Amino acid sequence: MSTAGRAVAVKAAARPATRRRLRDRDWVWGYAMIAPLVLGLAVFYLWPVVQSVYYSFTEWTLFGDATWVGLRNYEQLFTDPANGRALRNTFVYGGLSLLGIPLSIAVAALLGTRGLRLVSLYRTLYFLPVVTMPAAVAMIWTWLYNGDYGLVNYLLSLVGIHGASWIAEPSTALYALVAVGIWTQIGYNAVIFMAGLQSIPSHLYEAASIDGAGRARQFFRITLPLLSPSIFFVSVLSVINGLQMFDLVYLMLRRGNPAREDTQTVVSLFFSRAFEEGAKGYAAAMAVVLMLITLVLTVIQFRVQKRWVHYA
Amino acid sequence: MTGKIRALVVAGALVAGLAGCSSSDGDGSGGKVTLTYAYWDNENQGQAMTKIAQEFTKSHPNIEVKLQFTPNKEYWTKLQTAAAGGTAPDVFWMNGPRIGLYASQGALLPLSDKIAADKMDLGKYPKSLVDLYTLDGKQYGIPKDFDTIGLWYNKALFDAAKVKYPDASWTWDDVRAAAKKLTDPAKGVHGIGAMPWSQELYYNTIFQAGGYVISDDKKKSGYDDPATIEGLKFWKDFLDQKLSPTVQQMTDNDPIEMFKSGKLAMWYDGSYDASQYFKTEGLKAGVAPLPAGPKGKATVIHGLANVVYAKTKHPKEAWEFVKFLGSEQANRIQAESGAVIPAYEGLQESWVKSMPGLDLQAFIDQLPDARPYPVSKNTAAWARLETDAITKAFTDGQDVEATAKQLATAMNAALSQEK
């Protein structure tokens, strides 16, 4: 998961931390302990970010050197119509991936039902997509979505619906990909929500039922507010992951797919610009803009959360 | 998802690093040199490549060749990353769309001096291929093989519909008439597959209609030329009349597989796919020269070349190997494997004979009408626009003419950025 995700988790978890003055030698150990992570972050995350920003101001040819071109890449960004479409698709993807949250809560609640049999089997089944290789996921869904021989259309035909070629049809392909993206994330999100549900003290429910609150009221008045830190965490992650959508687009849409323009995300467009067409400086500018957009959206989410997230 | 991408990049870098190490293995170990040779087709050509490498080491005991296979989809990305990092393989396969970029950016070793010094005769290879790998008067690649396109047909479906097999006398009208008779919606059989693929399909018909893809000076797109548009419309008509499966169907189900399983009666495809049609059980396929269009006959010719990496540590040994790859002996090994038509003069016959029952001579007979695969210095920059636009034009409810004209504008803009 991304660093931003980790930061949220830390912030959410470490609220009531008490500070004490560290004795003289303690700080050495402290830094020694975090050194592996900090070094790793610096070398593999921070330095590449700095480099990307630098290269976004250059024309960086396929094998050659980078020459400084100032803001030209950024000017070009705003005149290339492909970018507008990719951005739109990316937002659709990031926005719709939030639909996975209610689904994940429902799954978490079902898995937490008291007296449920085979619970570890279900948990495994729901978590399986998370640990499955994206390439395998893409292959299986490509077959499920096949217009002539796919299982999806077979099931639809049983109720008399003639299904489309889901990932080859420009009007459906993006949503078909969104569905797969949500499907792969449900297991991961559900684990977080299960932990959130378990941390809600049971005496609150007892008190509520003594006061005469029904199941629905308990859910909306107790469960949902107390689950809100988890919901916030998952929504930040879902949006960031959605904005970085790449692997499914790359793996499921083959050469000459008519839906390619309509499913192209910023990252998949970045990949073709940088590694297929060799415009690496221009691609770096795209990456920088995507980073800024992600940053702004995350800041907004952090601002807005103050109004709806309850920390117990 | 970021984690995965980063992991991929790191893994890629590791692989590239390892490849770099291996190419310098030979240093200092008693004059023995190890060369790395990269290629992308293991299924059809892996055996031939292994055999060629072995034969080469037999005659050059101090040079060992390490084969490095990368699937086509990742080949160029990996090669590009390795070349940028100075660790590309010593010798590798090159194709027409990429040669301009690789040669103009200094990633390839010019071979002209070595060719002259060793008195190598380039007249043994088809001229259009030698020219494809010449840039600014310098030769960068030695042709490895070539391919042309033919009209493949399913004999069983033709027999069932009582249609005469295609032959060299066919024109567009014959294809249209046959497609109508061969289409049988009840059985899910279509007369022809109109897939928006350039080399196999629409480039050929564009040339047959008298159009062009890119002007000879590489400055102008041909997609606003009425003849070019006519070449595209040839395919669009089949789609509109439902004589071909839709593009969406052929995206879900590879048309090559549809042809193999008897769902397509006719299919334009290259000589490089001959061996898989030959091996398909229960498929009785034939092949004829491409039917003539309004402006006569034409087929796209393309071929690969072997090139040497500019920063190789062993330029002398790499040249020896490339020379061997271009030799009659190495071409004969390729011919006998049946995977590709060898580039070397006079060896095409053994390729034709390698698959008895298929009339592969059709591919060779078309050589006089062959037209070079259209390229420029940075083909990739407009090829992508082309794929997206033509695919869109072939999809339901799209106007071919308008889309082609838009493509011409976008492609001209991309061409104007080439230096």
UniProtKB/TrEMBL annotation, chain A:
Q: Which residues form the ABC transmembrane type-1 domain?
A: 86-301
Q: Entry's Pfam families?
A: BPD_transp_1
Is GTP-binding found in the keyword set? no
Q: Which CDD domains match?
A: TM_PBP2 (cd06261)
Sorted UniProt keywords? Cell membrane, Membrane, Sugar transport, Transmembrane, Transmembrane helix, Transport
Compartments reported by the entry = Cell membrane
UniProt membrane topology term: Multi-pass membrane protein
Transmembrane stretches, start-end:
28-47, 91-112, 124-144, 218-240, 281-300
Family stated for the protein in its record: Belongs to the binding-protein-dependent transport system permease family.
This chain's protein is named Multiple sugar transport system permease protein
Q: Which organism is it from?
A: Nonomuraea roseoviolacea subsp. carminata
Top-down, what is the taxonomic lineage of the species of origin?
Bacteria, Bacillati, Actinomycetota, Actinomycetes, Streptosporangiales
From TrEMBL, chain B:
One Pfam family, short name: SBP_bac_1
Determine if Transcription is one of this entry's keywords.
no
Record keywords: Signal, Sugar transport, Transport
Q: Which organism is it from?
A: Nonomuraea roseoviolacea subsp. carminata
Say which family it is in.
Belongs to the bacterial solute-binding protein 1 family.
Please report the name of this protein according to its UniProt entry. Multiple sugar transport system substrate-binding protein
Instruction: Give the top-rank taxon of the lineage listed in the UniProt record for this protein.
Output: Bacteria
